[in-house]
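Sequence design from tokenized structure. All designs in this work follow the same two-part layout: the structure record, then the generated sequence. An example of the structure record is given first.
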């Protein structure tokens, strides 16, 4: 039987990364990502973590986020700054443009749908 239950928890060696250099506004943010689901139809799920810094973001996909730890400030171009912290959940919709600033190393669960 194929299980239809997927636990989102870090396991194994994470992928290491960072924002593209031209997107960085301040700091030297570094990412760690534990992908637990990657489907050819454009569905992704896992855990992402970033160290402090600020960079430009732009979304062409839907992303549900649930903050597990840390503090970040997400600001949409022309909009208000929103502080997110442990326990907060939100969706970034296609077309979102702005900045993500990690104040305290932030870890989130995510589900992305292209």
């Amino acid at each position: 039987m194929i299980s239809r239950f997927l636990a989102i928890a870090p396991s194994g060696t994470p992928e290491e990364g960072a924002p593209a250099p031209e997107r960085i506004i301040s700091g030297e943010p570094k990412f760690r990502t534990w992908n637990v689901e990657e489907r050819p139809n454009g569905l992704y799920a896992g855990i992402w973590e970033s160290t402090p810094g600020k960079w430009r973001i732009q979304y062409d996909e839907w992303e549900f986020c649930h903050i597990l730890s840390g503090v970040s400030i997400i600001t949409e171009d022309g909009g208000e700054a929103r502080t997110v912290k442990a326990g907060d959940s939100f969706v970034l919709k296609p077309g979102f443009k702005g900045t993500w600033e990690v104040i305290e190393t932030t870890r989130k669960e995510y589900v992305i749908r292209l």
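The CA atoms of residues 33 and 48 lie 4 Å apart. We note this feature because it recurs in several other targets discussed in the main text.
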